[in-house]
Amino acid sequence: MAISEQNDLPERFGPMIVKELRQSLRRTSFVYPFICIHIFATIAIYAEFQLNIGAGSGVPAVLAWDPNKVGPFWWVAMTVCGLLMPLAGFFLMPQEIEEGNHELLLLTALNRWQVVAGKFLMLWGLSALTFTSLLPYVIIRYFIGGIEWGSEIAATGSVLAAAAVVAAGSIAASGFPSLAAKLGVFVLYIFSALGGGGAGMIGGGMTLGMSSTSKWSWLGSLFYHISALAVVLCYCVIGLLVARSRLRLAMMNFELKPSSLLLIIMGLAPFIVGMVAAFTCGFGSLAGVLLLTYLAWNSDRTPKAPKWLPPPPPNIPTLAIPGESNGKTMIAESQQVR
């Protein structure tokens, strides 16, 4: 018993993360990519130094993925850790919705947000863990020569950011019943992330390009990376909100379905962010991303009674009082049954 307690995951991870980690570490969706990525990474490093393919030069920036400046090693890391492994989120929500497990989970102290956030952190954490196992290859490339630490750090941020966005999108799509609906939601999410995210980073890209040759280049780089971080967080929140809306147990008759409303917002995201960027000549695109996040966050809110409203009186059946003619009391009903 003492050995199992020492080897168990700590409680600060949260029950959903612990549950998903225990299940996912045994799945083939983690084991096979973990083995294959090391095989492909070895081949990619061999190709880089045999063919003299380097990472190239330029301004290091996260999500600025230039195919002409990215070597085979980073293509392997992006394909496996940034794209393939996060797609395992397609299998996470059906096990809760189709089997009815979410109803039991919501009867506990967990809420809907904790359920989907636990799945996301587990999936993104496994991608980050697999990517961390590639650090020895990065060190080997450094000692052999031909790499720049600025470009390597930017490529690392790009892989982790792509893994987060794709993981949130796959979890969002997995909450829908049919395969066609899953694929349609995921394609819409990727279209929105590319269009809205690209429009949201216009201001940061303009600032980065204008300040790249001046002494204030660090300020332009800072603003660009703030915009990139805001875009990644925005679409992670939108994806998790779509998945969260599929776990809602009750809905009012006059209320628009939250998942439909979120899909509408997702489809209009490039136009919302693009219009804000156009009115501000590109520099206010970050404000459009924040506006999009605000609209998505308030589209699925569980209605709650105000604090000043007293709770309804309890409906508890009472016993019959002698002298009162009430034939619908518990005693009268029990006598009729007898």
In round numbers, the mean pLDDT is 78
What is the ordering of alpha helices and beta strands? HHHHHHHHHHHHHHH
Distance between the termini: 54 Å
Largest sheet: none
What integer value in Å does the Rg equal?
26 Å
Q: Helical content, roughly?
A: 55-70%
Estimate what percentage of residues fall within beta strands: under 5%
> Number of helical runs?
15
Count the beta strands: 0
Structural class assignment = mainly alpha
Shape from CA axes?
globular
Number of domains: 2
Low-confidence spans: 325-338
Textual characterization of the structure:
The chain has two domains: 8-175; 189-249 and 258-301, no CATH class. 66% of the residues lie in helices and 0% in strands. It is built from 15 helices and no strands. α7 (112-132) packs antiparallel against α9. The N and C termini lie far apart (54 Å). Residues 325-338 have low confidence and may be disordered.
In short:
The protein is an all-alpha fold. It has 15 helices and no strands.
Tell me the layout of helices and strands.
Elements: H1 2-7, H2 15-24, H3 28-50, H4 72-84, H5 94-97, H6 101-106, H7 112-132, H8 135-144, H9 149-174, H10 179-200, H11 202-211, H12 217-245, H13 258-279, H14 285-297, H15 330-337
Helix pairs in contact: 2-7, 3-4, 4-7, 4-9, 7-9, 7-12, 9-10, 9-12, 10-12, 10-13, 10-14, 11-12, 12-13, 12-14, 13-14
